[in-house]
Every structure is written in C-alpha cells, then in structure tokens.
Design brief:
It is built from 14 helices and 14 strands. The strands form four sheets. It has a seven-stranded mixed β-sheet with strand order 2-8-7-6-5-3-4, sandwiched between helices. A three-stranded antiparallel β-sheet has the order 9-10-14. Strand 12 and strand 13 form a beta hairpin. The chain starts with a strand and ends with a helix.
Length: 393
C-alpha cells in the first residue's frame, strides 16, 4: 500500500492512541448516564467534570464556564444566536469579519433575516482585521463582536487581545472562534478579554463530534438545546461521555506538548514555505508570514486549478486541501482569498498544507517534489501559461 502523507490537519487530525484508550472504558464499562445518582452514573459524571477542569485550566477559565457541545459549528451557532436573542433589547448590531468560517458567516446571514444588522469587516492583504475599522464599525446598538482567533485557510492569527480590549472598553461581548487555535496557541481568556470561545476536539488529535463553548460567568445567554437540565440547564441532551473524556485527554496532551511540538511545526512549516516559494515560479504565500498558525502553509500557484492539483497530489499519496469549495455543483474561489484581495484566477490555484505532530522533513521534501512536478505538468497544458511565458521572454 502506498504511503499516505497527511498534510490536511486543519481539516481533521488522527485521534491519538492514548485518547482512544482513555475513551474505550466509557463505552462498555463506565457507561452510566451522568445525570443518574447511582455509582455507574457517578463514574461518568466524575470523568466529565475532570475533563471540564482540564479544559478550563488550559484557558485560564473556571470549570463552570465550560459547556460541552457537538463541535465547533454548534458552539459558534450557540454563541451568536443566543447572544442575539438575550441582548436584543440592548441592540441589534453584530460585528464580524469577511474571512470567518461559514459556521459564523451563515449564522450571521440567518440573523440578518431575523432583523439583526451585521457589519462584515474587511481585512488587509495578510488577512488581519484592521483595529481602526473595528472601532469605526461600533455603534450604540452593537451587542457582539465575533472575530476568529486564527484563520482556518490562510493561518493568519488575529490581534485577539487588542480586539478584546476594544470590546471591553465599549461594553460589548467578544466571541472568538478558536477551533484552529485551541491546542496550537497559548490562550488566556481573562488576559485577552474573551467572553465566549468555541473549540472542537478533532482539530487537536481528539475525537470528532465533541467540542465546547466557553461562556464567561455573567454573560446572560440562554439555552441553545432545550430539554433536560444537562450543562447547568443551558444545553440539554445526555452527555457524550466518551467524547468528553477524549476531548479532555486531547486538550491536556496538546497543552503539555505545545512548546516542543509547535517549535518543530514552525521549523518544518518555514522550510516548506521557503522551498515552495524559491523553487516554484509564480507562486505566493497566503496569509501573514510570521503571525500564522505553527502548522499552516497556504499557497497560490498561477495558471493552475487547485482542484486538479489536489487530485494529482492524492495520486502521489499526499493529502492536502484547496481554498476552493465545491458548492451546489459550481466551483467558487475561497471567500477568504478574495477578501485578502486575490483575483479569481489566482485564488482558484490555491493549496493549503497543514502539518501534524507526525510530519517529518522527508514528508515535506517528498511533497515539494510532487508539487513541483504537478504544477509544471498542469502549466504545460495551459494556453494561458504558454502565452504568459512568450510575452515575458
């Protein structure tokens, strides 16, 4: 079987063996419902509370401020919809950015149909929100600012602490989608003035189908799922104990390994970036050169289609992703790449490679050689490239 070089860790990660091992007993041995009073249920509740403590400690938060969800998208929906409902008597204006994940953007679009007003901030060519524009966008009716911690496509890290300070100064709630950042970057919710934060287990070698929403004590948002009294009456439904246990182990593991792991990722990431930009003509790096996720490298290659590149990389055993998304049968360039000012024809030729803890220098070398070969082949079939080369001789 051909070796698979997995460079799509922003999409999902391999569940770590110790995470799986920790989860297994809660499927068949400690399977009790955490809401029951007998011992079997108490064991589940104890494990759930331990995971809650672990996650809270990773954020500098209190345990009672952590609410388990089914993942990042639910957490994002909860933060926006419940805040809009709870604070609508104060105002109806929300501020976000044009490069958010669709879990935020589509929720904002839905809220606009309910009568809320949303400002979508522009970003600079590196994908950073402009703080001066954020300040200008604030109105007396602004109730929420939601800006992601780091972008899932181009890796750019936002000035989260400064955004939090602006929100606090104006008495506005601040939510951040930290799905890509939690476990990759140090986060302290108090120091950064974060009122709500979304995260997901499967981005940090944990299981899929589990995430959490941090809600600062005193933020008066309501239940998102109605039913039982779970999650302190804010999120009904029998708790996913195996997933919660796995998320707790993954979070602890990510925090403890962060300095050494991300240092290695940054070294390999920069090596990858330097090789690609040096050895493949008419290529560009997307996102900020330094203020980016440790494992993220996003490129655009002129005169090729990103989807064709991905298919051919897969034939070489390399898993990556493109900034292009196939929606309802029509291929559209990434909204993130368009927002940083790239024209459609360049945005279509995007490739995102995201490293993991198992990625080696040999993997990077193999990937670069494969990309070089494929880009050259695709360009050889492009009349646009042929005309471009003739004109520039």
């Amino acid at each position: 079987m051909k070796k698979v070089i997995y460079l799509d860790n922003a999409a999902t990660t391999r569940t770590a063996p110790e995470v799986v091992e920790a989860m297994l007993p809660y499927f068949s041995e400690f399977y009790g419902n955490a809401s029951t009073v007998y011992g079997l249920g108490s064991a589940s509740k104890k494990a759930m509370n331990e995971s809650r403590d672990t996650i809270a400690a990773a954020l500098g938060a209190k345990s009672e401020e952590i609410y388990f969800t089914a993942g990042g998208s639910e957490s994002d929906n909860w933060a926006l919809k419940a805040t809009a409902e709870a604070y609508k008597s104060k105002g109806n204006h929300i501020i976000t950015s044009k490069i958010e994940h669709h879990a935020i953007l589509h929720t904002c679009e839905w809220l606009e149909k309910q009568g809320f007003e949303v400002t979508y901030l522009d970003v600079d060519e590196d994908g950073k929100v402009k703080l001066s524009e954020l300040k200008k966008a604030i109105r007396p009716t602004t109730i929420l600012i939601s800006i992601m911690f780091a972008n899932n496509e181009i890796g750019t890290i936002q000035p989260v602490k400064e955004i939090g300070e602006i929100a606090k100064e104006h008495g506005i709630l601040f939510h951040t989608d930290a799905v890509q950042a939690f476990g990759q970057l140090p986060i302290n919710v108090d120091e950064m003035h974060i009122d709500m934060l979304s995260a997901s287990g499967h981005k940090l070698n944990g299981p899929k189908g589990i995430g959490f929403l941090y809600i600062r004590k005193g933020v008066k948002i309501r239940s998102f799922v109605h039913g039982g009294a779970q999650e302190r009456k804010r999120r009904a439904g029998t708790e996913n104990i195996p997933g919660i246990v796995g998320l707790g182990v993954a979070a602890k593991r990510a925090v403890e390994s962060m300095p050494e792991r991300t240092s290695k990722e940054i070294e390999l990431r920069d090596y990858l970036i330097e090789r690609v930009l040096k050895e493949i003509p008419y290529s560009r790096l997307n996102g900020h050169r330094r203020d980016r996720l440790p494992n993220n490298a996003s490129f655009c290659f002129q005169f090729i289609e990103g989807e064709s590149l991905l298919i051919m990389l897969d034939m070489d055993g390399i898993c990556g992703s493109s900034g292009s998304a196939c929606t309802s049968g029509s291929l559209d360039p990434s909204h993130v790449l368009l927002a940083i000012g790239l024209p459609h024809e360049i945005a279509h030729g995007s490739l995102r490679l995201t490293l993991g803890e198992e990625t080696t220098k040999e993997d990077i070398d193999f990937a670069v050689e494969s990309i070089k070969k494929i880009v050259e082949k695709l360009r050889s079939m492009s009349p646009l490239y042929e005309d471009f080369v003739k004109k520039n001789k």
